[in-house]
Design a protein that fits this description.
The chain has about 750 residues and is of the alpha+beta class. The protein is elongated and about 145 Å long. It starts with a helix and ends in an 8-residue tail after the last helix. Bound molecules: ligand C2E and calcium ion (2 copies).
Length: about 750
């Protein structure tokens, strides 16, 4: 029986008792009884009938769903030993269940008429008075061959009893006292039904106070439920629980819908978890029909929850290491693939296989092998982030999924590489097993998870293949699935270690390229880093800046440029070749514009006793748009010290023009690619014109870089840029050459053209 049926049952009881008490005519009472049981059984195949006994004959009481022709033909039938279900039951005082009318001997004389009306089964129960006299019979007919279910029998029993009350009240005059006794019996019967159910049934009023209980009481916050009546159910609940409980009651009363919720409650047995179903019952209290009530069915689901958890644990976790098994890992991998597709990010999957597991397992036994797997897990798992998945997919194979929000393939490759290295290094330390120390190793295959149409299977297969390649490379190696990626990574690592060496051997230095104003005067220079490689010669920044940025070496490189720049200024000053207006432009990398940079700028200038006015920091548009608040703050601090800012490669990024005025910028630098478009006859000047217009609007200076010929110089001066830089004037050169160049430029004008 579900909660709706139970609530119907309680309401039915109230309704019938009300009708009996109000003295509603018997046929109507009996009809109500029939209609209610039919609606609770809830199928049109079931049709109820009540016959009233007078002398030895049964007369029609109520049968709202049976064909009236059938009712008429059995009206007044004599009870007896073979008189169908009803006649026999009223005669024998016993319940008579006939599940197949056609073949039952009891129905021999009546079956034709029953079958004619489609009636195939009939379960009949005698109706007794409170003094155990027979009053009639209560029956359920079915239009199909059918035996009753336990719940049917309880319902029939219960409604038969109610029918008895109705008939008796109608027949006897000294009924008041009897009625009370019978009423009590009715309640007892409901209690009997509910006590056979595993649930606790609680009735509360609209204020949340306990009104009634049915069923056993271990689900209640007291051993003796009677003592709780009148108390609020929220007693002992937290303020949040109280609030949601009262909201729930309100909602149920308002909507008349069944509400289901899970809650924890301290009951006589301790803290337990329950599933509560709540439904409104109308007219629950006969004496105060206006009060609203709620039927609350509580089921203790603590054990079920524990079992569910255990089942989930068994289904999705490896029992030895407690880590996700292949199934859960595959699930998560699918999640990562979906995320990668949605956000265009890149993830990575690492397939790890232990190198000497079989040897240890075979020689020391499975127990020790198991121990090793647990220890490997304990050692490696903490090396990962919480968002990563560490799983054991079988034997000595582990799969690690690196979740990432990165869109940059190089970055995720670096991440996967550094995680692999970390895992392998930790794996190579000794393990204490049984009585000895053992060394094992591992091999890792790496597969990037990108927005391509690969399934979880493809990715695992590829990572597995990469793992085999790593195994072939020797102990403790890792390999990417794509050989091209592997090559790239190898090269990058090589460059990284060469950069380290070059830093210690001072192979990095700055070259300088002059910047010229429109009168042809020298106003400063841009410092451009160079690597003087002992074997490869001069290496240009494009080959090492990205690696240095990712490996963190960029700070050291920047320091070399700063030192060289300071020394150049000091030398030029000493030779009285420049004045206070001369400035050096320093390129700042993305990701480097932070507190560390601020510190090193301040302390370096302090060391050389130079003013920040001699320095212009070149930052890019994307750096401005990244982390805007921090960037603006740092820029303001540096500008207050005297540093100036130039926006490099302006026009190539996506800066929001609306934001530009928020930054303390001094200058826009037109990217060389736009200057290169200035060619005789084929000018594409729209962008340059736009940049100059923006600069004028925001009152910023404009400098053009990559100026290579006199046509460009002419065009730019027509447009009144403030300064220029490029091969036309000079290529970037070492500091010593720069000094000579400056000296020469003081002697003759650099610019030699008509304006
Ligand atoms: P950038 O800041 O846009 O530098 C201008 C580049 O254009 C330089 O290349 C320069 O040598 C080159 N160049 C100058 N005049 C002309 C010209 O007339 N025509 C052409 N075609 N090119 C010209 P370089 O020195 O190879 O530097 C490349 C990039 O490396 C720079 O681009 C800058 O982003 C980065 N870089 C250079 N030095 C540093 C540094 O010290 N720190 C950081 N973080 N990045 C640097
Ligand atoms: Ca630059
Ligand atoms: Ca530039």
């Amino acid at each position: 029986m579900n909660i709706n049926q139970l609530s119907d049952l309680l309401q039915a009881q109230q309704k019938i008792i009300e009708q009996i008490a109000l003295g509603i005519p018997l046929p109507e009472c009996l009809k109500t009884i029939c209609q209610l049981i039919e609606s609770i059984i809830g199928t049109p195949e079931a049709k109820s009938s009540i016959l009233v006994l007078k002398g030895h004959q049964l007369w029609h009481g109520a049968a709202p769903s049976l064909p009236s022709a059938y009712c008429q033909s059995i009206d007044g039938m004599t009870i007896g030993n073979n008189a169908g279900s009803c006649g026999t039951s009223a005669f024998t005082d016993k319940q008579v269940i006939v599940s197949d009318i056609e073949h039952d001997l009891l129905w021999q004389d009546f079956k034709d008429i029953a079958l004619k009306h489609g009636l195939k089964a009939c379960w009949s129960t005698p109706i007794f008075s409170s003094r155990k006299e027979i009053l009639g019979s209560f029956a359920i007919y079915y239009t199909e061959v059918k035996s009753p279910h336990k719940v049917h029998l309880s319902l029939i029993d219960y409604f038969t009893h109610l029918s008895g009350l109705a008939i008796e009240r109608h027949q006897t005059s000294d009924r008041e006292s009897d009625l009370l006794v019978s009423l009590k019996n009715t309640n007892e019967k409901i209690r009997a039904i509910t006590s056979a159910m595993p649930d606790q049934i609680i009735v509360v009023d609209e204020k949340g106070c306990y009104v009634d209980f049915y069923g056993d009481s271990p689900q209640l916050p007291a051993k003796n439920p009677e003592g709780l009546i009148g108390q609020v159910a929220t007693r002992g609940m937290s303020p949040e629980q109280t609030q949601s409980f009262m909201a729930l009651i309100k909602h149920v009363l308002k909507t008349d819908e069944v509400q289901v919720c899970e809650y924890e409650m301290e009951v006589a047995k301790g803290k337990r978890c329950f599933e509560g179903r709540f439904v409104r019952v109308k007219h629950y209290l006969h004496e105060s029909p206006d009060r609203q009530h709620i039927l609350w069915v509580a089921r203790d689901i603590t054990d079920k929850k524990k079992a569910d958890l255990r089942i989930e644990q068994l289904a999705f976790y490896d029992p030895l290491t407690d880590q996700p098994n292949r199934r859960l890992m595959t699930d998560r991998l699918q999640g990562t693939i979906d995320k990668v597709k949605r956000h265009q990010t890149i993830g990575a999957l690492l397939f790890l296989d232990l190198d000497d597991f079989k040897r240890i397992n075979d020689s020391l036994g499975h127990n020790v092998g198991d121990q090793l797997l647990v220890k490997v897990t304990q050692r490696l798992k903490p090396l990962l982030r919480d968002t990563d998945t560490f799983s054991r997919i079988g034997g000595d194979e582990f799969v690690i999924i690196l979740e990432s929000m990165e869109k940059d393939k190089n970055l995720i490759m670096d991440q996967a590489t550094s995680v692999s290295k970390k895992l392998l290094t930790n794996l190579s330390h000794t393990f204490h097993l049984g009585n000895g120390d053992y060394r094992i190793g591992g091999s890792i295959g790496i597969k990037l998870i990108e927005d391509v149409n690969e399934t979880t299977d493809d990715i695992l297969k590829h990572a597995d293949a990469a793992m085999y390649r790593a195994k072939k490379m020797g102990r403790n190696c890792y390999a990417f699935y794509e050989p091209a990626l592997q090559e790239l990574i190898d090269k990058r690592l090589e460059v990284e270690s060469e950069i380290s060496t070059a830093i210690t051997q001072r192979h990095f230095c700055a070259f300088f390229q002059p910047q010229i104003d429109m009168q042809g005067g020298l106003i400063g220079a841009e410092a451009l880093i160079r690597w003087r490689h002992p074997k490869k010669g001069l290496i240009s920044p494009a080959h090492f800046i990205p690696v240095a940025e990712q490996s963190g070496h960029i700070h050291h490189l920047q320091q070399a440029v700063l030192d060289d720049s300071c020394q150049l200024i000091l030398q030029l000053k000493e030779a009285s070749l420049i004045d206070e207006g001369f400035s050096i432009a320093i390129n700042i990398s993305a990701g480097q514009f932070d507190f560390t940079l601020e510190n090193s700028l301040v302390s370096t200038l302090d060391t050389y006793q130079l003013s920040p006015r001699h320095f212009k920091l070149e930052i890019t548009e994307s750096m401005l748009m990244d982390n805007i608040d921090n960037t603006v703050n740092l820029m303001h601090r540096l500008r207050d010290l005297g540093f100036r800012f130039s926006v490099d490669d302006f026009g190539t990024g996506y800066s929001s023009l609306a934001y530009l005025h928020n930054f303390p910028i001094d200058e826009l630098k037109i990217d060389g690619s736009f200057v290169q478009q200035l060619t005789p006859g084929g000018d594409d000047t729209a962008i340059i014109d736009a940049i100059i217009a923006i600069a004028k609007q925001l009152e910023l200076r404009v400098i053009a870089e990559g100026v290579e010929d006199d046509y460009q110089v002419n065009q730019l001066s027509l447009r009144q840029v403030d300064a220029m830089q490029g091969y036309f004037f000079a290529r970037p050169m070492p500091a010593s050459e720069m000094i000579t160049w400056v000296r020469k430029s003081r002697e003759s004008y650099v610019l030699n053209y008509d304006i």
